[in-house]
Fold this sequence. Notes:
With about 220 residues, the protein is mainly α. The chain contains 7 helices and 3 strands, in the order αααααββαβα. Strands 1-2-3 form a 3-stranded antiparallel β-sheet. A hairpin with a 4-residue loop joins β1 and β2.
Amino acid sequence: VLALVDQGLLLFMCGCYAALTVATRVWLPPQRLRRSFDGPWLAVIGVDVAFFAMLQVLHGSSINYTPLFVLPLLLASVLGSLLLAMGTAAGVTLLLLLNGLRLSLQAHDNMAPLFIQIALTGAGSFALVYLSHQLAARLASQERQTRRSQTAARIQQQVNDLVIESLHDGVLVVDGQGTVHAANPAARLMLQGEPSTPLAVPFPLTQASAWQPLLALARHSF
Length: 222
């Protein structure tokens, strides 16, 4: 009877966990976690910590669920601040310690190996969240720097295009295969005269026989 009750409770817990996961995915908008244990932290991370802790309490003697705590710790370190990640690691360590005390009161055996394991797990949790947060912060900084560099490159490209467009000399941007990737109005006038439909870049210099000397000059330059 106790086994059936435990199985039913476990199935009920798994169903609630799945429902909360789907609800979080559907109704909670993506956002960066703040510095406190608020509603978004509870929905994204707190549910995981509570569920894994209950699994550890119900089946701690037969199955070790401690590795599952790595998932919420990584979430806290990547999505939140360092203070929030450290607080989450401290909470996980405290839950493991309380469970160890419960087991020691029930077993009345030498529980020193268990508490050593909990201490090592706690230390590893703090190291994991610190290193993960540092890595995530560095990646975010590099991404911001890349975006700024791309924005500056686009602005510079627009400035260059404006300068080239206003030149009275013909300017072409040609690759080694003779394909024109940019041409200002003066160059288009030299190539086409006064066409009804201007050429759309890119276009090859091989499509007109009159452009062959220019193509040969471009290939010679390369």
